[in-house]
Amino acid sequence: MNKGDVHPRLVAQDIHFKLTVGFVKRDCIISKNALAYLGRSRSGLTDCMEIYSHFENDIHSVAHRLIVAGESASPLILGAAYFVGIPTPSTSQGEEMLS
Question: What is the value of pTM for the model shown?
Answer without folding.
Answer: 0.76
